[in-house]
Amino acid sequence: DYKSLDTIVIGVVGGDGIGPAITGQAQRILEFLLNDEVNKGKVEFRVIEGCTIEKRAEVGKAIPDDVLEELKKCHVILKGPTTTPRKGDPWPNVESANVAMRKELDLFANVRPVKVPELGIDWTFFRENTEDSYALGSQGVNVSEDLAIDFKVITSQGTQRIAEAAFDYAKKNGKKKVTVVTKANVVKTTDGKFLDVCKEVSKNYPEVEMDDWYIDIMTAKLIDEKRRTQFEVFVLPNLYGDILTDEAAEFQGGVGTAGSANIGKQYSMFEAIHGSAPRMVDEGRDIYADPSSVIRAGAMLLNHIGYIEEADKLYKALEICSQTEKKLVMTGRDTGATSAAYANYIMETIDKLG
Amino acid sequence: DYKSLDTIVIGVVGGDGIGPAITGQAQRILEFLLNDEVNKGKVEFRVIEGCTIEKRAEVGKAIPDDVLEELKKCHVILKGPTTTPRKGDPWPNVESANVAMRKELDLFANVRPVKVPELGIDWTFFRENTEDSYALGSQGVNVSEDLAIDFKVITSQGTQRIAEAAFDYAKKNGKKKVTVVTKANVVKTTDGKFLDVCKEVSKNYPEVEMDDWYIDIMTAKLIDEKRRTQFEVFVLPNLYGDILTDEAAEFQGGVGTAGSANIGKQYSMFEAIHGSAPRMVDEGRDIYADPSSVIRAGAMLLNHIGYIEEADKLYKALEICSQTEKKLVMTGRDTGATSAAYANYIMETIDKLG
Ligand SMILES: CC(C)[C@H](C(=O)O)[C@@H](O)C(=O)O
Ligand SMILES: CC(C)[C@H](C(=O)O)[C@@H](O)C(=O)O
């Protein structure tokens, strides 16, 4: 329970590209909503510098040691998108900063809600966040010049805790069914284990049904208007979770609008699910970037630390503003509307909500 | 060139579940279209028995030796869906028959077209068909009771031939762009190699553009009405190809309507992309199964062996019939319309087309 802490420390990592611009706006809104708490010293915002791609490349680590140390002093983290190095980039082959953060802080549950009331969609994805192809993602083997091997890793314990998180959530929220997604007909050993462990866990939740699907046909079912509304809670290995949540977010307006909660036993991190769009920065357009994904991540953070009322206000404001002013921001180049203008509009809307 | 052969031997593998019922109907239609050729001895249909799940389980092999020998005597194969064994099934842990057939006959290119003219969709997927998580799919390692590992394998040669197939197709068909789909930001060694080799191959096709996307965001782009029509030809590693083509097929009416070509240097196999629906058989409903996927696979087969005119007629008939009678078949339980009735209707339609 965060509220029993003397001070809840919220770390803010701006990230790369458009990250600092949009994360800054999200922070402004959270500070606005928690103004009294900040003044009382109950909540502290702490901007953590030095998690940029240049710094990461310089020290050759996905997260510089001093940054990691600072992160571990926070209770929750709000994070902007970070640039993932790729082959041919001018920096060493370091791992993605968000992938590293998930592993270093053991944020094993990536929880991604997708709600589209007008389509009858109300999904919550529990994506395992530390194993699968991500565990050894940058440690594959070049057996020879022409033969490359990567590894997929699944453990019973890793699967058990994400399955329990999904079933707990379903039970607490009166959901009827948890859907397990694998490719156990082909990737037999690891996905087979994932499915087996989920089945075991499900036995402890007799009030919740379990069904299972293969990831290929699942991507089709999300599009099927008759079938998709029958799904509620999903639990998936890391990579299928990565894939299916991007597809799902599209129904809600795209990855640019979706926030993501990375939850562990000790730490939690809330982030945008899209990339850092360095091209926008190069073209001087970062001040026009749509900040709604990080703002939504901020709402999830508020909810997580127990500021439910504030979270609800922010969700409501996001809903109202997405209908109107967001279009202004999205076309900011032409209209001059900036991310800051959008954040202002959100805060005005919250004020009006009272 | 198949037409230079004395006799083109078309092997027919019924498969499991609804497979024999729907494959039988597809065969009837092909025999109808190639009636003269069969009478002249130019084309021979050869039904290959014994590739059932019971037989496969009995001999403990994905494809029984005698079946494989028979398959290798055919020039092309028409295949119904086969049941994939899963853990807990009453047969040994044998590999999926279609996966084994792709590897044994070295059918490296899985070509899946998806066309939806009214949505402006005209996609052709080139899915690599022998490597990736499928290469050692049933040979993962249980390091301990709680730790499972699977392997992803990518070779330069394997990637080169599928990339060349995609770029050749694009060039010959006046397509502007080939889109490579990987997750090279995380699965760095294998997907990185896949992307690198595709880039190398693309240099030999200056008239064709190449772009690349990550599989997660690609599943979202297929849904984005503004963006999806900009894609034409895709090339992907096996598993992402499996996933993305099921999603894509949904726009065309679902996997039940999509055919799939598995092409190698020596052999080719054409199949439905959906499963064997054993439940329908258990309930005595297999005679009502929708055969359009295998029929479409049959049209692809005709096209492949050079019977272009016959293929075109069949495609046209499929298009006409999907608007009308198919609904009858899909709801056959109530209306009494069977797969055979649907096949009859297709043949009548072909007759009318003249
Ligand atoms: C940027 C990338 C490494 C990351 C992932 O693959 O997890 C992203 O796609 C996400 O979903 O958060
Ligand atoms: C049945 C299964 C093994 C197969 C695959 O994964 O390739 C199927 O999904 C397909 O796409 O043909």
From TrEMBL, chains A, B:
Q: Name one GO biological process term.
A: isocitrate metabolic process
Sorted alphabetically, the keyword list is: Coiled coil, Oxidoreductase
Gene Ontology molecular function, alphabetical: isocitrate dehydrogenase (NAD+) activity
Q: Which domain of life is it from?
A: Bacteria
InterPro entries under this entry? IsoPropMal-DH-like_dom (IPR024084)
The Isopropylmalate dehydrogenase-like domain is annotated at: 9-346
A Pfam family reported for this protein in Swiss-Prot or TrEMBL:
Iso_dh
Q: Does the keyword Oxidoreductase apply?
A: yes
Residues crossing the lipid bilayer are none
The similarity annotation says:
Belongs to the isocitrate and isopropylmalate dehydrogenases family.
Q: What is this protein called?
A: Isocitrate dehydrogenase (NAD+)
Species annotation: Natranaerovirga pectinivora
